């Protein structure tokens, strides 16, 4: 994985003296003097997201104005990092309680997926941050987020089950976690029948696997947090093959796994007071003579049988086994991330991931954390009456809900609920993990969603 240069500089670093100011300008602000005249001449009125570079008498760039419109949205600073010319800058006008978030936004806005292109020659913009900002922590969180985006952006050919395993091993090693992987036919012996069924059609080098990571395992005095992520490295839909448009971006179907691993990395790096187990089923939903079929009835780790109505509803099958494994460990808290349904996007669009949980305290903590760190999520109901849509005549459950229920993201969450741990609380996030439109600071491609909210919730509950 590529590693970008840190974009934050401390106030006492050598370069800090040369930093040029970026002034945040509200829509109603009056600017006077030379800069005011320059702004007027350029039609700059503090419009949200507008950047104006201001020259000195020699024609060099002396400072920049960045419009914030009617109200300051700290994440809007992602656009700044993307658009500022190279060199060293400092921000003027950030509210004191948002300086860390501003630095983070700047880091997140500096991400570019450059694994397959020649490195740019333009030096990146770098930001001098006030002493009060905990740069190392900010950079660490940004790195965890970038790791997620790199994993999602990397094409399926180079981000197969093995590459996910390799990254998981690197993350484990970095923080002294234990890791074990069960692969291929061994999944049957180890009782992961659904993971095996979904992944068995792939070529041998891309065999399905179950990745399990433990951190602080012997610290039974600490609460156990389970992180689970859907790792479908490419979702063709299986024999219920997706049409071209629907398949186009399915390299991102391991976004949940990337989020679980990125969040785990962050929890471990921050040394939160928890025991951690990370469960990532990594499979390719491929087409071959050995593919699972519509009408097949799968067994699952928990012993519930599942009638396959549609091989494209594969994420819930591998998560069923992973959640059942989590349940055996009796966690105090379980979080899962999954690019589970297209219906979630119909409900809330690409930028607002649905959150499902029946635990009121967890919902409140997650939503409060989400607001604090500007990482949006929206609670949706585990609407029990729709559970009937998952009834099968020939098995305990079906994997594609009956059409009458319509609410596909809700019924997918209800499916998972059958397997989720009943000790402690469980929350499921149906993420998109993708920016469908590119704009400065939010390049088209992989996106990290709900991870920072979840980390903030964990950090608040279990400070290290
Ligand atoms: N990975 C997809 C869901 C998805 C599609 C997420 C597009 C983000 C963007 C999932 O495996 C899937 O195919 N779900 C089906 C379920 C249906 C067959 C019951 C869906 O949402 O259409
Ligand atoms: Mn699918
Ligand atoms: Zn899928």
What proportion of the residues is helical, as a percent range?
Answer: 25-40%
Uncertain residue ranges? none
The rounded Rg comes to: 23 Å
**Overall strand count:** 20
Question: What does this molecule look like?
Answer:
It is a single chain. The longest helix has 19 residues, at 135-153. A hairpin with a 7-residue loop joins strand 12 and strand 13 (306-307). The chain is elongated. The chain is 31% helix and 21% strand. The chain has 14 helices and 20 strands. The protein has 464 residues and is of the alpha/beta class. Strands 7, 8, 9, 10, 11, 14, 15, 16 and 18 form a nine-stranded mixed sheet that branches. It has a six-stranded mixed sheet with strand order 1-6-5-2-4-3, sandwiched between helices. The protein has helices at 33-41, 78-83, 99-109, 135-153, 161-175, 186-189, 193-199, 244-247, 255-270, 315-328, 343-348, 360-372, 408-417, 451-461; strands spanning 8-10, 20-26, 51-55, 61-69, 87-92, 125-129, 178-183, 209-215, 224-229, 231-235, 275-285, 297-298, 306-307, 333-338, 354-356, 378-379, 397-398, 425-430, 434-435, 445-446. Manganese (II) ion binds at residues 235, 237, 312, 314.
What key phrases describe this protein's structure?
464 residues, alpha/beta, six-stranded mixed beta sheet, 31% helix, binds ligand BES, binds manganese (II) ion, binds zinc ion
Give a brief rundown of this model.
This protein has 464 residues and is an alpha/beta fold. The chain has helices at residues 33-41, 78-83, 99-109, 135-153, 161-175, 186-189, 193-199, 244-247, 255-270, 315-328, 343-348, 360-372, 408-417, 451-461; strands at 8-10, 20-26, 51-55, 61-69, 87-92, 125-129, 178-183, 209-215, 224-229, 231-235, 275-285, 297-298, 306-307, 333-338, 354-356, 378-379, 397-398, 425-430, 434-435, 445-446. It contains 14 helices and 20 strands.
């Amino acid at each position: 994985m590529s590693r970008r240069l840190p974009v934050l500089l401390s106030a006492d670093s050598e370069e800090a003296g040369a930093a040029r100011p970026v002034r945040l300008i509200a829509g109603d602000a009056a600017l006077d003097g030379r800069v005011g005249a320059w702004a007027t001449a350029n039609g700059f009125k503090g419009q949200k997201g507008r950047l104006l570079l201001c020259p000195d008498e020699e024609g060099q760039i002396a400072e920049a104005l960045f419009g914030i419109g009617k109200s300051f949205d700290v994440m809007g600073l992602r656009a700044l990092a993307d658009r500022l010319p190279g060199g060293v800058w400092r921000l003027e006008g950030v509210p004191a309680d948002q300086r860390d978030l501003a630095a983070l936004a700047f880091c997140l806005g500096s991400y570019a997926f450059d694994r397959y292109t020649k490195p740019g020659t333009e030096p990146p913009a770098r930001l001098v941050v006030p002493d009060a900002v905990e740069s190392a922590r900010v950079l660490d969180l940004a790195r965890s987020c970038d790791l997620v985006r790199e994993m999602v952006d990397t094409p399926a050919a180079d981000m197969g089950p093995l590459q996910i395993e390799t990254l998981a091993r690197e993350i484990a090693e970095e923080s002294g976690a234990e890791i074990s992987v069960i692969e291929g036919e061994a999944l049957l012996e180890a009782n992961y029948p659904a993971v095996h069924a979904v992944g068995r059609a792939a070529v041998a080098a891309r065999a399905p696997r179950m990745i399990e990571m433990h951190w602080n395992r012997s610290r039974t005095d600490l609460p156990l947090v389970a992180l689970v992520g859907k790792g479908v490295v490419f979702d063709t839909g299986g024999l219920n093959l997706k049409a071209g448009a629907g398949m186009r971006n399915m390299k991102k179907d391991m976004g949940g796994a990337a989020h679980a691993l990125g969040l785990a990395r962050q929890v471990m790096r921050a040394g939160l007071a928890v025991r951690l187990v990370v469960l990532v089923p990594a499979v390719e939903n491929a087409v071959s003579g050995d593919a699972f079929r519509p009408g097949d009835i799968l067994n699952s780790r928990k012993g519930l049988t599942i009638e396959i109505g549609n091989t494209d509803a594969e994420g819930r099958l591998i998560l069923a086994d992973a959640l059942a494994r989590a349940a055996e460990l009796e966690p105090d808290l379980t979080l899962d991330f999954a690019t589970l349904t297209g219906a979630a996007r119909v409900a809330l669009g690409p930028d607002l991931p649905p959150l499902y949980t029946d635990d009121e305290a967890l919902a409140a903590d997650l939503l409060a954390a989400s607001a604090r760190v500007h990482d949006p999520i929206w609670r949706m109901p585990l609407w029990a009456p729709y559970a009937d849509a998952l009834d099968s005549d020939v098995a305990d459950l079906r994997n594609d809900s009956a059409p009458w229920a319509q609410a596909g993201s809700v019924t997918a969450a209800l499916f998972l609920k059958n397997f989720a741990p009943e000790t402690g609380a469980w929350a499921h996030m149906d993420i998109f993990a993708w920016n469908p439109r590119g704009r400065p600071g939010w390049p088209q491609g992989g996106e990290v969603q709900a991870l920072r909210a979840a980390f903030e919730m964990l950090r608040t509950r279990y400070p290290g």
